[in-house]
Design a protein that fits this description.
By secondary structure, the chain is of the alpha/beta class. About 20% of the residues lie in helices and about 35% in strands. It is built from 7 helices and 15 strands. The strands form 3 sheets. The chain has a 7-stranded mixed β-sheet, with helices on both faces. It has a 6-stranded antiparallel barrel with strand order 1-2-5-4-3-6. Strands 13-14 form a two-stranded antiparallel sheet.
């Protein structure tokens, strides 16, 4: 529960309200995270916030942060040399072992591209361990696309299919227009031999999961990464409770059959 100190060693401004920070341990480092887990990042004097891991490279933590409140505003304002408290990692991760030898379908919407970024890294690092790989990305507008440079690099490879769509296009946009679930229909996968990983806004994940299952992917092979207002990260406070699930410890990555009935309940 005591945060370890990390130093900001690199900062990248991805969008006007979104930055990516690379953190290196000052002294003692946190345990090695599994892809898909999250850390609690501490802005001293203000508070802490749960932030998914966008990468773990050479002992460095990579976190993409969107400004939505006092804590994330403070974290996103960090510059090289600043220190941040980190405790974690917490929660369940993406189980890539279940996808070995199978086609992999990744569906990401908006900031949901950050938590699935390590999946793409793993696919590239061990490409022969998996079948066909497809990444479907959706954003509100072209200007809201995250990791645009990396998306172009990934598109340039011959061993992964990358499709991008936006809800609302600009005059210069030459790509697809529409919700990301529309791309599922034409994804070049063998549905019965596919494992799918989905992350994004809750309504997008709900419709994406239904679309993937409608394509013939077994429901048990569809994994979602949920987001809730996590506070303690160990399942004690109840802030992140969704029905019987405590997302900080039972998630954030959960199989679609387990949360399907819970995501159908309207929030009040």
């Amino acid at each position: 529960m005591t945060p370890r100190m990390y130093e900001v060693v690199a900062r990248r401004d991805d969008l006007p309200d979104t930055v990516t920070l690379t953190l290196a341990p000052v002294d003692e480092q946190c345990p090695t995270p599994a892809i898909g887990q999250f850390n609690m990042l501490w802005a001293f004097g203000i508070g802490e916030a749960p932030i998914s891991l966008a990468g773990f490279e050479n002992g460095h933590l990579i976190h993409t942060i969107r400004r939505v409140g006092a804590v994330t505003n403070s974290l996103a304002a960090s510059t090289t040399g600043d220190q941040i408290g980190v405790r974690g990692p917490y929660g369940t991760g993406w189980d890539l072992t279940r996808a070995a030898g199978r086609d992999v379908l990744v569906v990401a919407g908006g900031l949901g591209l950050a938590p699935v970024r390590p999946i793409i890294t793993e696919l590239f690092a061990n490409r022969s361990s998996y079948g066909r790989a497809v990444l479907l990305v959706g954003a509100r507008t072209p200007d809201a696309l995250l990791y645009r440079d990396e998306l172009e690099q990934w598109r340039g490879r011959l061993d992964i299919e990358v499709e991008v769509t936006v809800d609302s296009a600009t005059p210069s946009w030459r790509g697809d227009v529409g919700v990301v679930t529309r791309l599922v229909e034409r994804a070049p996968i063998d549905p019965e031999n596919t494992t799918a990983f989905v992350c994004g806004p809750e309504v997008m994940m709900r419709f994406a999961a239904v679309s993937v299952v409608d394509r013939g992917v077994p429901a048990a092979e569809v994994m979602l990464s949920l987001e809730r207002n996590m506070h303690c990260a160990i399942g004690h406070c109840g802030h992140c409770q969704l029905g019987p699930e405590f997302i900080c410890k039972d998630g954030p990555v959960v199989p679609w059959p387990r949360v399907k009935p819970l995501l159908r309940v309207a929030e009040r």
